[in-house]
Amino acid sequence: MFNSEPFIAFGLWLFHVIANRNLAFFSPQGSCQLTKLALWHIIHGLPWRVTAVMLADTLEWYRDHEKCLISEFKRIFLSGFPDSILDQLGDSIVNWVERVPRRRFGKILNGDIVLCRHIAKQTGILLDPIYTLAAWEHSVLLSLEAEKDSDIVMLHTGGTLGLFGIAQRRPEEFLYAG
Fold it and tell me: Which residue positions does the secretion signal occupy (predicted)?
């Protein structure tokens, strides 16, 4: 299985030179990678905010999972980090947000595929209406609300993306028309 963590770390290192970052993700079913990322930025003293769009479960489920991962991290590495870093690790270090509009996981709304195609034509960025479109939409919202000289970064943390899964199920909607 492909391990995306080295690539995530490398990509985040590249952004280290610019301080104000707001990282937007989508989180289908797990918060493991996102919690690791949030821990990573705190440990390295980066003033970033990690925002994750919840796609498959409740806020309570994501927070419980995140809390468990943070507790496990503290248990294993308690003596390896200064108190100033450990003090920053509360019960929640990821900003969890709901997908707007809310929907059952996997449901594609009218216009989602057209929007993905439009974004691909305008930017060259391929999005899937089930997963990455949610992070894209939230990234756009964050960029409209962002302070001057701050950046919004949308990353995919690996997992089981299946980016073209929807295109395989609905090829007629993704064919190039010209």
Answer: 1-24
Q: State the residue range of the domain holding 13.
A: 5-107+129-158
pTM: 0.69
What confidence category does residue 9 fall into, taking pLDDT thresholds of 50, 70 and 90? low
Query: How many domains does one find in the chain?
Result: 1
Residues in contact with 31: Cβ distance below 8 Å, sequence separation at least 6, in sequence order: 52, 62, 65, 66, 69, 94
Asked whether residue 172 is assigned to any structural domain, the reply reads no
Q: What's the burial of 86, exposed, middle or buried (CB within 10 Å: 0-12/13-18/19+)?
A: middle
Flag whether 70 is in a domain: yes
